[in-house]
Amino acid sequence: MFIKNTSKQTILKPLQIIIGIVEKKQTLPILSNVLIEKETNQIRFTATDLEIQITTTIATETANDVTEAITVAGKKLQEILRILPDQSEISIELKESKAQIKSNKSRFSLQTLPAQDFPKLNNQLNGANKISMPQKQLKALLHSVQYAMAMQDVRYYLNGVLLIIEGNKIKAVATDGHRLAFNECEIVGNYEKQDIILPRKAISELCKLLEDSDNTVEIEFSSQQVKADFSGITLISKVIEGKFPDYERVIPKYSNHLILSRVPMQQALQRAAILSNEKFRGVRFVLTEQKLTIISSNSEQEEAQEEIETDYHGEAIDIGFNVNYLMDGLSNISSESAIFSFGDPNSSILITSDKTPEYRYVVMPMRI
């Protein structure tokens, strides 16, 4: 018996940890499978898409003298376990080339593929730097910039987050060419400068799997690979090769500053967004003496207008932005106020916070 009378949650929980990188349709059929390895007092679950690999382990009460391994369709196994009653006990038996899953009076038979064919990522961490930090700190850092990553840009180096370790700081930068998010935090130790670009999928999985706790995450960086160990999970990812844009040149220094209450500003933008063009999502910022007017319109000649009182006393500015980009930036500020810094009507806008001055968010203007 491969697995005998084990609670549903014991198997489902590790499966849910690794399943995020498993696609149903793959060029290699085995990539739709998860590798389950039974060893002495533990069972290890692994998934990979050849770029990222996630492994997690559960302890078992029974000693296993024989090491066994199978690969089964990950999504199908997850769905079977998810739909079974919560108190179910699961047994998995190998018969010929199939995994027989039994629970009470339910029976399922899943195809397997040879475990020796499962393509584990090779270790490429020779000479890697290693840092440790609280999981909640890394999670907050990645979450504060990840929304600015490109989706499927031909400039492949934009489809991820730039991580920089330098001195006692770790910095994170993401940009899709239309906006840029930057944040940094302090770490224990003093390191020579090293930067890598982690792909979108690895960033998404880390944001999902890291805990909001002081439990540590250990990260190893090399020029080819990154490995994160935390809470019994090991995530290994290839890095994106390429030259990331010079983010320091993109972040402007302006003298025109506008301090606005964050929540009323978010609400005004949400209302204006309703009548913005569905494709371009543009809104106009018209900044005049002690007043900010937010205007949106669409192809049906419909229009929305929001007025906000300000302490602004500079020159009048009329400038357009993507409203979704602005709301993304405000969503990642926890303070009551947000600082909007302006240049001329052709320049980007800089959004910062007095509570977290390390966070900087730049949005390029658009013609409306």
Largest sheet: 12 strands, antiparallel
What is the count of DSSP helices, taking H or I runs of 4+ residues? Answer: 7
> Which secondary-structure class do the elements indicate?
alpha+beta
At CATH level 3, the topology of the largest domain is: DNA Polymerase III, Chain A, domain 2
End-to-end span in angstroms?
A: 66 Å
Number of strands: 22
Instruction: Return residue spans where pLDDT drops below 50 for at least 5 consecutive residues.
Output: none
β-strand amount? 35-45%
Radius of gyration (Å) = 25 Å
Average pLDDT number:
94
Instruction: Name the CATH architecture of the largest domain.
Output: Roll
Compute the number of structural domains. Answer: 3
Give the oligomeric state of the chains in this entry, treating copies of one chain as homo and distinct chains as hetero: single chain
Order of helices and strands: EHEEEEHEEEEHEEHEEEHEHEEEEHEEE
What is the CATH homology-level superfamily of the largest domain? DNA Polymerase III, subunit A, domain 2
CATH class of the largest domain: Alpha Beta
Spatial arrangement of strands, main beta sheet: 1-6-7-8-5-2-3-4-14-13-12-9
- Categorize the overall geometry: elongated
Helix content: 10-25%
Summary?
This protein is 18% helix and 44% strand. The protein is of the alpha+beta class and 368 residues long. It has three domains: 3-117, DNA Polymerase III, Chain A, domain 2 (Roll), CATH 3.10.150.10; 129-249, Roll (DNA Polymerase III, Chain A, domain 2); 252-363, DNA Polymerase III, Chain A, domain 2.
Molecular structure report:
By secondary structure, the protein is an alpha+beta fold. The chain has three domains: 3-117, DNA Polymerase III, subunit A, domain 2 (DNA Polymerase III, Chain A, domain 2); 129-249, DNA Polymerase III, Chain A, domain 2; 252-363, DNA Polymerase III, subunit A, domain 2 (DNA Polymerase III, Chain A, domain 2, Roll). The chain has seven helices and 22 strands. It has helices at residues 8-18, 74-83, 135-143, 200-209, 247-250, 262-273, 323-331, and strands at 3-7, 33-39, 42-48, 52-59, 68-73, 89-95, 98-103, 106-113, 129-134, 160-175, 179-199, 216-221, 225-230, 233-238, 256-261, 282-288, 291-297, 303-309, 317-322, 337-342, 349-352, 360-363. The strands form three sheets. It has a twelve-stranded antiparallel β-sheet with strand order 1-6-7-8-5-2-3-4-14-13-12-9. Strands 10-11-22-21-20-15 form a six-stranded antiparallel β-sheet. Strand 20 and strand 21 form a beta hairpin. The longest helix has 12 residues, at 262-273. The chain is elongated. The N and C termini lie far apart (66 Å). The mean pLDDT is 94.
